[in-house]
From TrEMBL, chain A:
Every Dehydrogenase E1 component domain range: 60-344
Name of protein: Pyruvate dehydrogenase (Acetyl-transferring) E1 component subunit alpha
Lineage top rank: taxon: Archaea
InterPro entries: Alpha-ketoacid_DH_E1_comp (IPR050771), DH_E1 (IPR001017), PdhA/BkdA (IPR017596), THDP-binding (IPR029061)
Keywords, sorted A to Z: Oxidoreductase, Pyruvate
The keyword ATP-binding appears for this protein: no
TrEMBL record, chain B:
Keyword Oxidoreductase: yes
UniProt name for this protein: Alpha-ketoacid dehydrogenase subunit beta
Domain Transketolase-like pyrimidine-binding: 4-179
Cited Pfam families: Transket_pyr (PF02779), Transketolase_C (PF02780)
InterPro entries on file: THDP-binding, Transketo_C/PFOR_II, Transketolase-like_Pyr-bd, Transketolase_C
Gene3D superfamilies attached to this UniProt entry: 3.40.50.920, 3.40.50.970
Transmembrane segments: none
Keywords: Oxidoreductase, Thiamine pyrophosphate
Amino acid sequence: MDGEPPSRPPPRVNTAAGVEHLSQADLRVETHQVVTAEGTVEASRVPDLTDAQFRDLYRWLVLQRTFDERATKLQRRGQLGTYASGRGQEASIVGSAFALADDDWIFPAGREAAALLMHGVSMRDLLLYWRGVEDASRMEGANVFGVAIAIGSQMPMVTGKAWGMQLAGDDAVAVGYFGDGATSTGAFHEGVNFAGVLGVPAVFYCQNNQYAISLPFSEQTAADTVAQKALAYGVDGVRVDGNDVLAVYNAMSTARARARDGRPVLVESVTYRRGAHTTSDDPTRYREEEEVESWAARDPVDRYRTFLADRDLLDDVDEAAVREEVDEMFDEAVAAADDYPHRDVDEMFVHLYEEPTPELARQMEWYRDFLDDHPEMDEYVHQRERG
Amino acid sequence: MPRETIVQAVNDALHTEMAADDRTLVFGEDVARSGGVFRATDGLLEAFGEERVRDTPLSEIAIVGAAVGLATHGYRPIVEIQFSGFLPPAFDQLVSNASRIRWRTRGRLTAPMVVRTPYGAGVRALEHHSESLEAAYAHVPGLKVAIPSTPADAKGLLTSAIRDPDPVLFMEPKRVYRSFREEVPDGEHTVPLGEAAVRREGADVTVVSWGAMMHPTLEAVDKLGVDAEVVDLRSISPLDRETLLASVRKTGRCVVVHEAAKSGGFGAEVAATVAEDALLYLEAPLRRVTGFDVPVPLLSMEDYYPPQPPRIAAAIEETVEF
Ligand SMILES: Cc1ncc(C[n+]2csc(CCOP(=O)(O)OP(=O)(O)O)c2C)c(N)n1
C-alpha cells in the first residue's frame, strides 16, 4: 500500500441488490368528499346536523363571501389597508370553523374572516384590524391569536398552546390556519414534528388554495399532497375537498376528536383562491383566466346551495334576506369602526412591557411634549405618501 | 442617462450585471413570473431564462442558505427577501454560514452573494412589513450592509455588492422606492461599498443619515437655513469613518438620524465612533433622532413612528444653538 490511503471504487449501482426506496407513488391519499362538484351526495357521509344548522352553514358561507366583497370595496375607497380575501375558499373557512368549540384556540392566517366571526370576534374589530388599529389585535372576546402575517410563524405556537391545554387538562384543541406556502417554512416542519413527539391536541389546518402569491402548488413542493407530509412526523393526515363544506366539517370534526386524544392531525383542504392574493396583487401576471373560471364551476356556495335544494331546505332560506342581513351587519360594523375613539400617541408605547422601561417612559413623555409644541407635525404625519 | 426611480435603478443594476456575468442567478419568492412584489426583478425571467431567474417556495431559510451553497460553487446568487421583516428566520443562515464561511474555511470557500430586501416603514403595509433592523445585521462580523438613498446610488451600490467577494445585505428603502427620479448612468455604474457621500457641504453641523431617512433629513436642513453638512453613509458596514470624522472635526457638531429604534440602533455606533475619535472637536452633545423603542405601529399610527422633518429640525437647531 506504500502508505497510500485505501482507495474506494467509483460509485456504481447494483440494481440487483434490491434496495427499496420509499416513494410517494406508493402512497394513496384519498380526498374526502360528501357532495361532488356535480351535486351528487354521498348520503352516508352527510354530517349529523339539524336542519337549522344546515341553514346556518349557508348563512356563514354567504357572510364570508359578502364580507370579502365589501371589504375589498372598502379598501378600494381607501377605507381599509391591504386586504386578503377568502373568495373561493368559503367552504374551507366555514366548514372548518363550524366544527370547533368556543374553548378551542384559533391561530389565523388572514383570509378566514367567517371563522373568526363565528369564533366570537366582532365584525367591527375585524374591520379595525384591517385598518391597522392595534387594539383590534386583542381579538376581544374570542380565543383567537393575532394574525400570522409572518407566514408559518404561528405553527410552533400552535404546538405550545396545545401542550398547555394538555398540561392544564383542558378539553380543547389549538388550530393553526395556514396556506400551502406556509408548509415550505421551517417553522411549519418544526412545529408539526414537535407536536407529533409531544402528542398534543393540535390541528394544523392547511387551506391549499393552489397558490402562494404567484407560485403554483406544483412548484411549492415536489410532494403530490400536503396531507402526506403528516406521515414524516408520525401524525395523522387528512385530505379533503375544500369546496365541499360538509366534507370539511367532517374532516375538522374527526381531526379535532383525534387531537383531543393526543394525536395531532394535519388537514389539507384542497380549494382555490379565486381572487387576487391581496388587494395589492395582480393575478393576471401569473395565471390564466380559464383556470380561474374552471374553478367557478366548483364554486363552494353554489355546490352547497344544490345540497340544500335537494333536501328542500333552501325554501326556508330566503337568499335575498340573508344577503340583506349580512349587508346590514356590515354597514353597522363600518359605522362602529368609524366611531372608534381617536387614539393618541401613547398607543404606540403601551403594552410593550408590563411596566414601561425607564427609557421607554422617557421617550413617550418626550414625544407627547414634542407633539404639543410642534403642531406642524400633523402636516407630516397626515401626508400619505407611498413608496 | 435615463431618469429612474430607486426600484428601476435596482432593476437596471440586475439586468446589467446579469448580462455581464452569467454566473449570476436571481431567485426568491415571486421574483420570476411576477417580477417581484415591487417589480424590482421585472423582465429578468424574459431576458435570462428560468435557469437563472427562479421563483422559489416560501422558504427564507432555504433561499439564503442555498445562496451560500451556490456561492461556494462559483455562482453569484442574488436573492430577494420580500420584506426585511421576513429575514429573521434566515438570520441564522447569515450568522452561522454566510458571514463566516470564508473565516471558517480559512479562505478556501467563500460566499460572494447578495441578499436584497426592501426595508422600513411608510407604505401602509401589514404587520412585519416595516422593520429597519439594519443594526442587527451590521453587528454580524463578515457581513456587509449597504443601504442606498438615491436611484444612482442604488444602481452603483448594488453593482458593487454583486461584484463583491463577500456576502452583502442590500437594504432598499421602500418608502422612497418610487417617490422621485434622477439620472442614473447607463450600463456599468459602481459606487464603492464603504464610502459615504457628502450630500451637502456645510460648516455648522454634521447631520448623518442613510436610506429612507435621507429625505426628511435633507428637507429639514433645507427648511432650517442652517449651514449643515449632510453625510449619507450608504454602507453602514463597512462604515466610512474617515468621511464621518472629517466632517465632525470640521463642523464640531453632530446629529444622527435613523428610522430604527433608538436603543442599540446604528446611531449608537456612529456616536461611539465620534466619541472615540473626535470627542475633543465637539462643541455640543451629539443628538440622535430615531424611531422609538417599540415595534413599528400598524398603519393607523405608522406615520408617528419615524423621524419627521420637524423632529429632525428641532434636534439640529438644539445642537447648533447649544
Ligand atoms: C415569512 C414570510 N415570507 C414572505 C411573506 C410574503 N407573503 C405574504 S403571503 C405570501 C404567500 C402565502 O401563501 P400561502 O401560505 O399559500 O397562503 P395564501 O396567501 O395562499 O392563503 C407571501 C410570500 C410573508 N408574509 N411571510
